[in-house]
Structures are given as structure tokens and as C-alpha cells.
Amino acid sequence: MLKKGYDVTVYEKTGKFARFGGPIQFASNALSTLKAIDERLFQRVMSKFTFTATRRCGIKDGLRADGSFRMTEVADPSYLWDEDVPADWFVSFPLKECADFFQLPYTGVINRPDLQDILLDECRQLKEDFIQNGTPVVGYTNHDDGVTVQLSDGSTVEADILVGSDGIWSAVRSQMYNEGPVKAKSANGMTTQGCPYSGYTVFAGETVLPLGDYYECGYKVYIGPQRYFVTSDVGDGRIQWYAFLALPPGTKKAGDTWEGAGGSAQEGADVISYLKSLHEGWSSEIFYVLDNTPAESVEQRDLYDRWPEFFRSWADGSTVLVGDAVHPMMPNLGQGGCQAIEDAYELTKSLSAVQTFTQSAGTPEANREALQSFYRNRVLRVAGISLLSRLASDLIINAFDTPWSPHDQKGTDWKSYLTFLWKPVLQYLVFPAQFLFLYSYHPSGPMGSLPKQLESDWRERHRESAEKAFEKAKKEGQKSGGPSFFSMVEDMVSA
After folding, report:
1. Which residue among 188, 229, 294, 401 has its CA within the 20 to 30 Å range from the CA of 58?
2. Pairing mode, if any, of strands 217-224 and 56-61?
């Protein structure tokens, strides 16, 4: 919005900014949106980016992967009659092919500290004091001329519009939808501030490790009985892993620095042992990753999302919700941050549409209608992506299992046969349709040969930085990346 000439002030909960933790995925649709927002911003993000979709990304058999991280054929039907044909890989995701179809940059990740630095610098070049730290929004009052915003220190601010982008535990949404106090739990503990517990908790960790497929594989999902395990290259030799488990909410075994309570090395070691016990009989590839993970890097988070808001607008008068504040979603498609970027672009477009050449902002009535138009334009796409994200977890946990094979007894129940039959459908129909749908939103338009040039420039940097990291870890060992931004800020505020 600053790029479009709006006078924007961000009221931020945290008292002071600090560089913080892990990566965030930007899929092709988000990268296209960034380029449409601003060319320089896009270029700066690309300079810090790690592409994953230019290499194989897909699903591996968690029990049959042989432990060598080999890159075997995905679709070789001869494994049905020849037991010597490897069956490590179940399906691959057509990320690169779908991006090429629209001529878009390839999906990948960027470190949050790098992204934060870029965004802060870009915004401060337009408005030095655009952000006010330590004064979050706690309420609002709509009126004929706009909205009065209540801040945590008791002060108020007058604004034309209020954009509630305050995350899943949103104070703005709490008032708009009458949800009660922020983070208020239901009587049965299964819903927090209107967000139902997904049924899943996720453990995560990070390690610097030269896997046998490091340069050939972007990320992989190991599937097996009642759970799945994900590893992803996140740049600089680092591998981030996730273990998704169906456990009751509050089954805490490790800290969560996003909630201001990081775990200890002992907790991390206990979690690693716990995960190894749960994956007994699975591929040694998983154990190799877990055994080489610094214990203090391990965290846990219960996953919450929301059903799509088909019957309640995201806007109330001159106030509107965006991003996780209104549509938090499961992380399986990596679209949470991407949809927030799309929201920002579409909201700005809706507000700009009610301006005139001589009037830098629309009238209060026009602005209110622009917010409703934004909701109507976004709700169906966001709902589809949110439901797909939830469906991915439910299917893998409840309907997928080790695929049936005629050569062993590792997959013999009905889910194993179903998983086996799903393979060609997923490979040639479901996943192509899914990613074509995701990438069909690309406001930048086709980029011609630019995506391939960006990937070529990155590949050399990637290998050089990874080899340096591997060598350093070999000589010096490795430590966790340090506390997250949120835990750092907790320390600053309490001090």
C-alpha cells in the first residue's frame, strides 16, 4: 500500500525487531504477486531465495526407501513384476512443469530474517516511521468518517480504514466476529478463539547435513502408517524436517518459540527419541536426519485453522481482515504466507479502484464498499486453497498407508491397496490440477525466460554456500539457529 501512495502505519505488538528463525515458502503464485507489487522488491527477494521446485519434490515410501537417498524412477510400472526395480518414490509433484506452463518463477523458500530486513528497508524508504512497535491494536469503532483504532496503551488513532493483519489470534477478528477474549478456549478445549484444533501437532527441527540427494531433491514427504515425515532443503546446506502426528491438543513435548516459549536441549533430545520410536521400521533415511539434528533446534506446535467464511464478510464498516487473521490454513501446501501476499495485492487494487486522479483516497462510503468487494473477490479462491490444505493432512493420515506391493508384506490393509490405486490418479490428474489451480493466479503475467535465468543464477550460489556450510559443520559441529524473533522480543519486553 505504501508503494501505491497510501499513508500507512503499522501498529506492531512486539517491542523491538530482531532477526529471527526459519524459512517461509513462496510458491509461484506469490512470487508473481511480489513482482506485480514492485520489481525491486521481487529482485531483492530473489537474491536471497532458495528454489526447491526446480528439483524433484514428492512423496516417498517411508518403509521401502533404501536409506541411500537414491533418486529412482517415480513411474516405472515394471516394479510390479520385477522385484529388483526400486519403489522408493511414490509420486512427484509437477511444481516445475506447472510453473513453466504459466512462465512463472519456481517455488522455494526465503529465510524470515532476510525477508524481514528487505520489507523493513523497502517500507522505510517510503515512510521512515511507518511502524510503531509495542502498541498493538486491541479494538476499533467504526463511524461515518472511517474508524477509531484503540491501542494497547489506551491511546486512539483515527484512520480511513483498519486492516487487521494480526495473525491467527487476532484481536480485530475477536471483536468483529464476537469471539470473546483473544485465545479464549471452548469448554472442551478443542477450539481456541473460533479456530478448531486440526487434530494434528507438528514437531520440527533443522540440521546442516549433506544428504545423498541434497542437490537433486527439493523436498520429500515420507508416508507410512498413520503419520508422515517431511524434509526440505532450506538453503545454506540446511535441512528442515517436520513430523506430523495425530495427537490431542496440548500434548506438549517441546517448546514453541512462536508462542514465546522455546524448548530446552533435553526436551529436544526426548522428542527425537520419541519420534524414532514412533518410526520404528521406517527408512533409515529418517533416522539419519533425526540423529544429526541439534536437540535444541527441535520445536512443537499444535496446528489450528478455520473453516472458510462463506457467510460472514471479512469486512465490518471501515475495518477488514487479511491473512491468518481470517483464513489461517494447514501448512501442507505452503500457501499461508502466499495467500496473505495475494490479499495485500487485491486489497490495494480494490481501494485504488475507488480513487480518482484528484482524490488520493476514496470517500468513506466508497472505501467501505471496496472492502466488501475485496472480500467477495477473494473468498472462493482462499476457501478452495484452505480446504485443499486441510484435505492433504486428513488424506495422508487417515486414508494413505504404505502402498501395496506384490513383493513384500509391508502394505496389506485396505488403505495400502487404496494408496497403490491412487498413484496414477495423483501423478497424472490430481496434482497437476491442484498446482495449475494454485498458479492460475499470477498478476505479473508470464515472465518468459526470466524464471529459468533466475534459477540458473541461483544454482551456482546454492552449491557454493552449501559446500561451505557442510565443511564448517564437519569441522566445528553445529548449533541451532538461536532463539526465534518472538522469544527474543519476549526477553526485550520483560527487561
Report:
1. 294
2. parallel
DSSP class per residue in 145-174: TEEEEEETTS-EEEES-EEE---SS-HHHH
342 vs 69: CA distance, rounded Å: 36
Taking the C-alpha atoms of residue 468 and residue 262, their distance in angstroms, rounded to an integer, is 28
Angle at 412 between CA 407 and CA 416, to 5 degrees: 100
CB 217 within 8 A of CB 462: no
Q: For the purposes of burial, counting CB atoms within 10 Å of the CB of 19, is it exposed (0-12), middle (13-18) or buried (19 or more)? A: middle
Question: How far is C-alpha 428 from the geometric centre of its chain's CA atoms?
Answer: 25
* Residue 76 CB neighbours (<10 A): 13
pTM of model > 0.90 = yes
Residue from 23, 35, 43, 42 nearest 110 by CA: 23
Average pLDDT on 402-409 reads 93
The SS3 assignment for 10 reads strand
For residue 56, the cross-strand partners are 217
pLDDT at position 359 is 60
Whose grid coordinates read 488513532? 157
Residues 6+ apart with CB under 8 A from 493: 14, 15, 134
Whether residue 36 contacts residue 384, with contact meaning beta carbons closer than 8 Å, is answered with no
Q: Determine the average pLDDT of the residues in 402-415.
A: 92
Residue-wise pLDDT for 372-402, tens only, equals 999 999 999 999 999 999 998 888 888 889 9
pLDDT tens per residue across span 172-191: 999 999 999 999 999 998 99
